[in-house]
Amino acid sequence: MKRLKKTPIQIYLEPEQEKIITLLSKASGKSKAAIIRSCISKFIDRLPLEKDPALGIMNLGSSGKQDIAKKHDDYLVSYEK
Length: 81
Prior knowledge:
This protein has 81 residues and is an all-alpha fold.
């Protein structure tokens, strides 16, 4: 994952969650924050595709052309002219 500026956020953990994160942190040598970020990333990676917010942008710029996938380079060149 590309390194972006991190945004601080405050959360409240259940005591058992905090114990497990502390154990994972000590065992792996990673910070608690790194463990939590890793868990969030794994959760997001496992979301079903239909719940992916990026899919909401598909078909926003419909051109009506049926061969975009095949001739996309030709269309891009003609657009630059």
